[in-house]
Write a structure and sequence with these properties.
Blueprint (H helix, E strand, L loop, with lengths): L5 H15 L3 H27 L6 E5 L1 H5 L10 E5 L4 H20 L17 E3 H14 L2 H11 L2 E5 L1 H15 L4 H8 L24 E3 H19 L7 H7 L7 H21 L10 E3 L5 H31 L3
Parallel strand pairs: 2-3
Antiparallel strand pairs: 1-2, 1-4, 5-6
Length: about 325
């Protein structure tokens, strides 16, 4: 489709989202299609208002969109890299970034609370300025700058020059080993909310709107996603999808049968989220009402949580061992 307005794109989303929500891959392909339509329309509007883009550029997505792991609802995580470093380009692409951000909001994607959007100068820069910013984040290595690096590493080009993101990721990986960044990234992702108690019971939310539900984002999804991301950085893997990263990891680090197990568990988890989640809004979709799961699904869910925890511990041991041996 070629949309003439954001309202038309929103209608298209509403028409197709229900069917797409029955399958993880179909759903994420639909999200990609909608995002590309919004970007295309935003570019057309910007051309009419400000003229054609002054130089080549890349519009990229991050977060669950970057990893191809979006649920029914998703907020915005995106940025822009443009080739030329000058005032005209900066003004143009910040304006385009605002048009894209507003267009996505009008088509059902909430603004990012943390401002990780291409209307923010922090996430909309020339290629040279991106290299400088990434260098600063690496050298600073504070909790916040490491968090921003981790966000960027999940980036995926959605429109424009794919080579820019590949170059920037390779740039980060060149310095990651030298700056002992893996240990700092590990510390940034150490928190793992327990999903199973010592007696084998699910540790559901005890109060608030989500009482009685399981936060699968923090108890099950993050341990797998964060662990695989760290190993991907260690292996200088440019891909952003957790499933693809797993397939590309060397078997001397994770044997093939374990990689297949983690991939299977991640897909089961994403399917559980679609099947049982209350998708009235973005936040609710991360909580699983346990009373809707069958006995077999509950057994599977416990297995997924335990497997993710074991993977998290393994990756922690690998990185800490290398750090202690000075072999990063």
């Amino acid at each position: 489709m070629t949309a003439a307005s954001y309202e038309e794109i929103l209608r298209y989303r509403k028409k197709h989202i229900r069917l797409a929500s029955t399958d993880h891959f179909m759903l994420n392909l639909l999200h990609d299609e909608i995002l590309k339509q919004v970007v295309g329309l935003a570019i057309s509007i910007s051309i009419k208002r400000d003229g054609p883009p002054p130089c080549p550029f890349s519009f990229f997505v991050m977060g669950s969109a970057g990893r191809f792991e979006q649920s029914v609802w998703s907020d915005q995580d995106h940025g822009i890299v443009y080739f030329e470093k000058n005032e005209q380009a900066m003004t143009y692409f910040l304006g385009l970034g605002k048009e894209i951000s507003d267009g996505l909001y009008q088509t059902g994607y909430n603004y990012c609370d943390g401002g990780v959007m291409s209307n923010n100068p922090l996430w909309c820069k020339s290629l040279y300025e991106w290299q400088q910013q990434l260098t600063d984040w690496i050298h600073e290595s504070s909790w916040e700058s490491v968090r921003q690096l981790l966000i960027f590493i999940d980036s995926r080009t959605l429109y424009g020059e794919e080579i820019y993101i590949k170059q920037l990721k390779s740039f980060v990986y060149q310095f990651a080993q030298k700056a002992h960044l893996l240990k700092k990234m590990l510390n940034n992702t150490m928190f793992r909310k327990k999903g199973i108690g010592v007696l084998g019971q699910f540790l559901t939310e005890t109060h608030g709107l989500h009482a009685g539900t399981l936060n699968i984002k923090e108890t099950a999804l993050f341990p797998i996603v964060n662990s695989v991301r760290l190993m991907a950085i260690k292996g200088s893997i440019v891909s952003s999808s957790t499933l693809t990263r797993l397939s590309q990891l060397p078997e001397r680090w994770i044997p093939a049968y374990k990689k297949q197990l983690y991939q299977s568990h991640l897909l089961s988890l994403l399917d559980f989220r679609l099947k049982h989640g209350n998708h009235i809004n973005y936040d609710n979709g991360h909580y699983l009402p346990m009373d809707t799961l069958s006995k077999e699904e509950k057994i599977k869910m416990k297995e997924i949580i335990k497997t993710g925890s074991a993977l998290h511990r393994y990756v922690k041991e690998v990185i800490e061992k290398e750090e202690n041996n000075g072999d990063e």
